Structures are given as C-alpha cells and as structure tokens.
C-alpha cells in the first residue's frame, strides 16, 4: 500500500539507536517479548503465499501445584483478495482459499486456537450505506457454508476456530447479527457470540445492517483454555471486557475492522488495558487494506497480543496479510491476579449498586457545589 508506514516497530528498529532500543521497548511494550522459533517450512510457505508470519511467547513462573498451561493462539489479518464488484460467491470462495492457506501454516506452527478478523468472509461494506449485494454475504452460524468450512479446518488441524461472520438468523425472521462462531478442535460447533456494541462513529454506522447482540458475555470452555470474543466496537467498552472476564475468560479475542484516521491512537491502548485490568490475555485483530469501491480509509492491521502483566507483542504489519502466532502460559493470569488483586480490590458490589441507580430516569448525580 503506497505511502503507508509498514509498522511502528519497523520504524523504531530503523531509527532508535541500538543502545536505547531495548529501553524504549521496555517502556513501550513492557519488555522484549520472547521470539518463537517457528519451523522453516512454515516461514518459507508464508513467504511463498505472500503473508507475514511472526511468533512470540509469554512465559509464567513455575508453580508447585499446577503444571504450565501452554497454548498457542493464531491471529489472522488479511486484505480482500478480489475487487468488491466480483460475484458474491466468487469473493467468498477466494476468502476461503486465502484463509485455508494461512491456517495450514498456523497448523505447522502448532497453533491450538485461531481467530479471523471481523466479518472475514466479506469486504467491510457496513460503511457504504448500500444493502445489496452486502447482505447476501450473511450466512447461518449453525449450518452456513463458512461454518462447515471452518469445521473441516478444525477437525483436520485439531484447532479451535473462531470465525466472525455476518450471521443470518432464519429462525428469527432473517435477522442479521455480527457474530463470532466458535468451533471446537473436534469440529463440533461450540456456540456463537454476537457483537454487543454497534458503532455510531464516523462512517461506521452499522446499526442498519445488524442488531445489537443478545448472547450476553458467553465464554467457551475449550480443551486449550477458556475463551471469549469481544467483537470490534466492544473494545471501547471496559464493562464488556469485564463481563467476559467475570465469566472466566482467560483469552479474549477482539476481531475488528477499523481505520487509521479514526482509531489508530486508541488501538495499542484499549485491548492492552483490558488485559491488565482483567488479568487475562487479549488478542485484537484488524483487517488490512481498503473497501475497493468506497473511499472509507485504510484498515491498518497491526494485530497483537497483550498479556495480563501489561506486556505485549509487536504488532503485525499495517499493510500486509499476516499470521501472528503467540504462545502463552495461562498460569500467568492467576499469577498476575494474585500480585495486583484487581478482582479483589474492584469493589464490584459498590459499582453494581451505583450503576443500578445511575441508569434510572430519576437519577441525580452526586455533585456538591459551593
Ligand atoms: N467494525 C467496527 O465496529 N468498527 C468501529 C470502529 C472502531 O471501533 O474503531
């Protein structure tokens, strides 16, 4: 993408003098995340298939009573491979093919849980105000062709697959939802989690396309850990992260679609802060590129993982397709919780009472004037 900065990290590496770089990374990222050594075959496949592949690891201290709980997650960010005026079925098939080749590399890297970007089977058309053909990309979460495709991938690679799609719910009058379908590594459908908060900012007026989610803050118990999916705009809502965490999520994915002029300065902060505040891992994913027929702006990728101790990986590229492989020891969640105790000191009962008062029409703010 001409004129776009490749990544913040490549810029820092280029311009910060080496003696200062480690200290800059400590201050900005909480330290240098351990680099994963990935199989040569995976690295060369990624290069041939024209996507970036990076791997990092977060460690936890050894414990006496619990064994390490090591899991590898994969975050996928990608452009739309075909122009937006290509036939719908052809666009979906091309996206399936693209994801298939990235997931194959994820499998070579030992990924246990993989998550794709928001509404990954379509161009991000919700800002265009056009209905057709975009609503034709909606599919059943239970037996749509994308769910079937992901079930095959999950079975083949023994991988939990988080597949965020535009869902058409035929049982409820064909209602559309923005939904993450979660598929177990056995290939069985575990369930779905719908986007709770719909943006009303800039061109992101998405409420005429799909409804506010009604699945609450479901978490999914997988063989590799307890996961949740906070879709895109939910990133700006600390209570949304909190509720997934209170339900026990150790890893919260945040599949997103957002552009540079709107949110790029918020991007490194919000999900990372959620990891700190909730003693969990967070995984924000953003697509790359543009909606080819609409001048919306540049989707800046930069997917990363933040750990409960506040450290984070570098981001993927701002311009290229990519797979980020991150190894984490889930024991770190409780270790950090026992250190900082935010769940103990959070005074949730006080806020539960006060919030219940604040949402009443008769609420009067507690302000004392002179
Ligand atoms: N897809 C979506 O909710 N985008 C909103 C923009 C943002 O949250 O940065």
Automatic annotation (TrEMBL):
The protein's location, in the record's own words, is: Cytoplasm
Ranges where the CN hydrolase domain occurs: 71-330
Signal peptide: which range, if any? none
Q: Which domain of life is it from?
A: Eukaryota
> What class does this enzyme belong to in the EC scheme?
hydrolase
Reported EC number(s) for this entry are 3.5.1.6
Q: Read off the PROSITE patterns from this record.
A: CN_HYDROLASE
Q: Which GO terms describe its cellular component?
A: cytoplasm
Task: Give the pathway.
Answer: Amino-acid biosynthesis; beta-alanine biosynthesis
Q: What does this protein do?
A: Catalyzes a late step in pyrimidine degradation. Converts N-carbamoyl-beta-alanine (3-ureidopropanoate) into beta-alanine, ammonia and carbon dioxide. Likewise, converts N-carbamoyl-beta-aminoisobutyrate (3-ureidoisobutyrate) into beta-aminoisobutyrate, ammonia and carbon dioxide.
Q: What is this protein called?
A: Beta-ureidopropionase
Q: Which organism is it from?
A: Phasianus colchicus
Q: What is the lineage of its organism?
A: Eukaryota, Metazoa, Chordata, Craniata, Vertebrata
């Amino acid at each position: 993408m001409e004129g776009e900065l490749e990544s913040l990290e490549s810029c820092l590496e280029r311009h910060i003098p080496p003696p200062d770089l480690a200290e800059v990374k400590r201050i900005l990222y909480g330290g240098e995340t351990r680099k994963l050594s990935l199989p040569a075959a995976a690295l060369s496949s990624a290069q041939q298939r024209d996507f970036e592949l990076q791997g990092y690891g977060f460690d936890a201290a050894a414990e006496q009573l619990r064994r390490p709980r090591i899991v590898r997650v994969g975050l996928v960010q990608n452009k739309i491979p075909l122009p937006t005026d290509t036939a719908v079925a052809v666009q979906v098939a091309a996206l399936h093919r693209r994801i298939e080749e990235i997931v194959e590399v994820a499998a070579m890297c030992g990924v246990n849980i993989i998550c794709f970007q928001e509404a990954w089977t379509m161009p991000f058309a919700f800002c265009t105000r056009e209905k057709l053909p975009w609503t034709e990309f909606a599919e059943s979460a239970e037996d749509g062709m994308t769910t079937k495709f992901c079930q095959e991938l999950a079975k083949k690679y023994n991988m939990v697959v988080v597949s965020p799609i535009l869902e058409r719910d035929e049982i409820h009058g064909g209602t559309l939802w923005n939904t993450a379908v979660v598929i177990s590594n056995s290939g069985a459908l575990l369930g779905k989690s719908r986007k709770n908060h719909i943006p009303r900012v800039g061109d992101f007026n998405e409420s005429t396309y799909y409804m506010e989610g009604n699945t609450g803050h479901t978490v999914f118990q997988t063989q590799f850990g307890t996961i949740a999916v906070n879709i895109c705009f939910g990133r700006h809502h600390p209570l949304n992260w909190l509720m997934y965490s209170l339900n026990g999520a150790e890893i919260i994915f945040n599949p997103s679609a957002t552009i540079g002029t709107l949110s790029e300065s918020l991007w490194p902060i919000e999900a990372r802060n959620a990891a700190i505040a909730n003693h969990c891992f967070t995984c924000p994913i953003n697509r790359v590129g543009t909606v080819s027929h609409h001048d919306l702006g540049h989707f800046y990728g930069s997917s990363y993982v933040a750990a409960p101790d506040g450290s984070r990986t570098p981001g993927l590229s701002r311009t290229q397709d990519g797979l980020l492989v991150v190894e984490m020891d889930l024991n770190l969640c409780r270790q950090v919780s026992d250190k900082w105790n935010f769940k103990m000191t959070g005074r949730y009962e006080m806020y539960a009472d006060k919030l219940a008062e604040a949402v009443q029409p008769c609420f009067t703010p507690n302000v004392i004037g002179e």
